[in-house]
Design brief:
This protein starts with a helix and ends with a helix. Helix content is 83%, strand content 0%. The chain has 364 residues and is an all-alpha fold. It folds into two domains: 172 residues, MFS general substrate transporter like domains (Growth Hormone, Chain: A), CATH 1.20.1250.20; 172 residues, MFS general substrate transporter like domains (Growth Hormone, Chain: A, Up-down Bundle).
């Protein structure tokens, strides 16, 4: 179990540092450099775009060269990237820094999950859920810690602290056991089953990013930033608590039923948000989403490692598809409006689930 604890601590500090560097630090720092809103938006998307390409590549490389080498690389990026903020004086350099920083998370997430799958094959759903919870706790603490430090000391202390957290991650990666190396050369055959799993995760994160982006703009929450922040914190807290139990359930009863239940709850949450007439409906939608996302994602990740013998590649592929969904979510809702946008995301999730279940029935 010592191996698991080391991975959990690394996951906590990795996401704590990376989230501190962007929330609320990034837009405030970019504004202090004189960037326009359009430039800030482009800079903010740089790390997500990096993830779309690097997630899959890092998972594949971990199947060839082993998990430990890739995680060491991610640790070095977590350590070095925050220091590069001091060199950023314009939009281009800041975007490059964010793109470089995005490499760290894009490597760490799929490869650390693959490592847990290697080490604990019989309990991977439970332990993947616990790892996800440790990263969510880091994500929840980060904005408050970064905002407080910026208010009292400025940006420099945040960047140094993020680098310190990155150094802790780097040091911990040297203690990780080596695993992976299932491949001797580059090799990947397309899997429609993995694509469908990726679409399920993509729909969940389309919803997640849409809620995170537009929740503060709901009529009932206008001029109540504290309340929207509280709802988002509750949402993350629910996910952190539920995911380990959802993973345990997945290990006991199988992956399919939790995925179906989770996706149904996510889609229902989107409909509640789309047609919300009061604050109660908004809160109910956020809570339902948290439950559904936790239940579904706690099963899609372990199922991916069972569909493909190349665990790192499979998880990296899922993360890449997920990042595409996460990037598209706010765009869809922004163009279609709250009602049509959230309805579209909900319907997309149900359709993805329907195709997934039909595929399973056709194969059986």
């Amino acid at each position: 179990m010592r191996k698991l604890y080391l991975i959990l601590v690394a996951g906590f500090f990795a996401i704590l540092g990376s989230t501190m560097s962007k929330s609320p630090t990034l837009p405030l720092y970019a504004k202090s450099l004189g960037l326009t809103k359009g430039e800030i938006g482009l800079v903010a998307s740089a790390s997500t775009i990096t993830g779309i390409f690097v997630n899959f590549a890092s998972g594949l490389l971990s199947d060839i060269y082993g998990r430990k080498k890739l995680l060491k690389i991610s640790g070095f990026v977590f350590f070095s990237a925050p220091l590069l903020y001091f060199l950023a004086k314009d939009a281009l350099v800041l975007a490059l820094v964010r793109a470089y920083y995005g490499i760290a998370t894009a490597i760490f997430v799929p490869v650390s999950l693959a490592l847990i799958s290697d080490l604990f094959p019989e309990r991977k759903g439970t332990f993947m859920g616990i790892l996800s919870s440790s990263t969510l706790i880091g994500r929840a603490f980060a904005p408050l810690l970064a905002g407080t430090l910026i208010y009292f000391a400025g940006f420099w202390i945040v960047f140094l602290l993020c680098s310190l957290f990155g150094f802790i991650v780097l040091a911990l990666t040297f203690t990780f056991p080596d695993a992976g190396k299932e491949l001797r050369r580059f090799e990947f055959s397309f899997s429609f089953d993995l694509l469908l799993l990726g679409l399920l995760d993509a729909s969940v994160y389309m919803a997640y990013q849409s809620i995170e982006t537009f929740l503060p703009l709901f009529y009932f929450l206008e001029n109540k930033a504290w309340l929207s922040g509280l709802i988002l914190t509750i949402e993350i807290s629910i996910m952190a608590v539920v995911k380990p139990y959802a993973g345990y359930l997945s290990d006991k009863i199988g992956r399919i039923k939790p995925i179906a239940l989770g996706m149904f709850l996510v889609s229902l949450a989107m409909l509640l948000l789309a047609f919300s007439k009061s604050l109660i409906f908004i809160i109910a939608g956020a809570v339902l989403f948290s439950l559904g996302a936790s239940i579904s994602e706690a099963s899609t990740k372990p199922l991916a490692t069972e569909i493909s013998k190349l665990k790192g590649t499979a998880l990296g592929f899922l993360e890449s598809i997920k990042d595409i969904g996460q990037a598209l979510g706010p765009i869809v809702v922004g163009f279609l409006g709250f009602k049509l946008g959230f309805v579209f995301v909900g319907i997309f999730g149900i359709l993805a689930l329907g195709v997934f279940l039909m595929r399973l029935r056709f194969k059986s």
